[in-house]
Amino acid sequence: MGSSTPVVVQGTAVASPYDHNTTQQQQQRQSSSPAGGTGEKQPTSCRDPIFALLLYANVASIVAVAGIYGTAAFGEAIDDSTSGYNYEGYVYATAILGLVAIVLSGLTLPIMMCIPELLIKVSLVMMLILSGVMMVMSFLSGSIFGGIFGLIFFAIFVCYARAVWSRIPFASVNLLTACTAVKKNIGVILVAYFFVALAFGWTILWSISLMGVWEKVIETETVTGGQGQEIQQSNANYGYLFLLFLSYFFTHQVIQNTMHVTVAGTVGTWWFSPDDATSCCSSGMMGSLFRALTTSFGSICFGSLLVAILQSLKALAQSARNNDNGILICIAECILGCLESILEYFNKWAFVYVGLYGYSYLEAGKNVFTLFKNRGWEAIIADDLIGNVFFFLSLCVGLVCAAIGLAFGENSPEGWFDDSPNPGSIGATCAGLGFVAGLVLASILMSTIASAVNTVIVCFAEGPAEFEANHPDLSRKMRETWLEFFPDCGC
Length: 491
Fold this sequence. Notes:
With 491 residues, the protein is mostly helical. It has helices spanning 24-31, 49-82, 88-114, 116-140, 144-164, 168-184, 187-212, 214-217, 238-272, 283-293, 297-319, 326-357, 361-375, 377-410, 426-462, 464-470, 472-485; strands spanning 7-9, 12-14, 218-224, 230-236.
């Protein structure tokens, strides 16, 4: 690519992130040309509203079922499960371990900002070691086929690690930039915890509804066995089961993706208009949250519904595993899982465009195809390398909380665990609660930064000149690391 040739992003020549002789003024003149086609802020209007109405109807239906049928069944289940036991000690332990997990998760943000490149390298090596350990364990356990597959995947991972190692500096600057944007708008993390609490509440509400209609979903009949004994046989009503799965996954996906769109809008504001996004509850963050819950909510529901349908079909296949056609169900489950992963990955990028510009879901999807046409594997590699960091940091927080939980269970205040279930394994139970609390709460922070990373990758393709003007230090690092890999693209 010549040093004076601008890059075409979404049909328009813009300042190249690789050729930094192109100035911001040149980019503005090019973007205002009749051939303009870069991402543009859309007029304020509700996008894909029919899908938002479907979500409202879904939630209203579950609330009605829970109120009419579920409350009595839920009360009976609670009475049966808690009879004679005291769970107060576990509640206190979980609350304390949750606070510890939040503190530890918060400490990971400055760590990622200080040593992003080292973290990416360590996480990549750890993934390689883990792959090798799994291969060795398969051979030692006598699973020859498992060991062979493990060897193949280990070899593939070695080749992958060698191929992407030179991209690590560029990925580390993406991570640093994303962490900086989140730190400047730390309120998005509070919003993330709120959405997780909302998802937890939705799970409880859906579970209450399921208890209320359980007899409709699972039909039980008594049959006579071969020796004359009576056997209880359960048959699932797959129509009801599919609707219940769809209801749960649809709302859960909407909650998750609403957070993703909010972060994308906040980081986009920080990128293009930093004065509006440099405080805990900045106007940029609040505006992004408002748009995600109003004008862009239908687009979020549209993409979420597509994933929810695949998740529901997959869950339905899993529930039917005990049938005679087990092989066909296993194949169907595998296909549905692959389709689900592909669509979720596509949505991750599409919702960045929804958050940045307010596109409808289908328009955002077109922009995703243009992004990968222009950026190819670079966006995928940077996203994947940073994802390894998030996994291992979440795992480390979970393990530390598990160790604290084990010590806490063994040295708990007197009276906390009197009449609790399993009195001989209080320490192990607290360790398990600590691990789950640490893993979940750390993952919330990591998912927020992951959304920011995806937005940074898109914004670097969309507006490198604005990045240079508004955040020159980070822009310089981004240019330098890119030129290390593409030295022929002169500055």
